[in-house]
Specification:
Elements: H1 3-7, E1 17-23, E2 26-34, H2 38-49, H3 62-68, E3 79-85, E4 88-96, E5 102-111
Antiparallel strand pairs: 1-2, 2-5, 3-4, 4-5
Length: 112
């Protein structure tokens, strides 16, 4: 799955801000949305990637630190999804804002 194909699945949820980046490690997107819409975003993510491999409040295991090192840090307050298929890895992480009103969905599509 290409990043565009993944991101288009969220179009109907109207993110308030979008940012894209491509480098040698993969393709990245950040979609910012209102916290009240979180259940809808979770539904789409679970449809695409399956259930989360780490939920909010769950301690971060060493294997998750290694898994996400090219993606940025992961903390206890975040939720992480991952799908590995053939030579591709898709990581998606909810990053709650301190203002408690917004959440960023960070997505990375890379080759393993």
């Amino acid at each position: 799955m290409e990043l565009y194909d993944f991101i288009i699945e969220f179009k109907h949820l109207y993110p308030v801000h979008k940012k894209y980046h491509v480098d040698a490690k993969g393709e990245y997107a950040q979609l910012v949305f209102d916290r009240r819409e979180l259940p809808k975003w979770c539904q789409v993510l679970e449809k695409l990637l399956g259930p989360p491999i780490k939920i909010q409040g769950q301690p971060v295991a060493d294997r998750l630190v290694q898994l996400t090192e090219d993606f940025g840090e992961i903390f206890d307050h975040q939720t992480l999804y991952c799908q590995e298929k053939d030579t591709q890895r898709i990581l998606a992480m909810f990053w709650p804002w301190r203002d408690r009103d917004l959440i960023t969905l960070k997505v990375m599509v890379s080759r393993r």
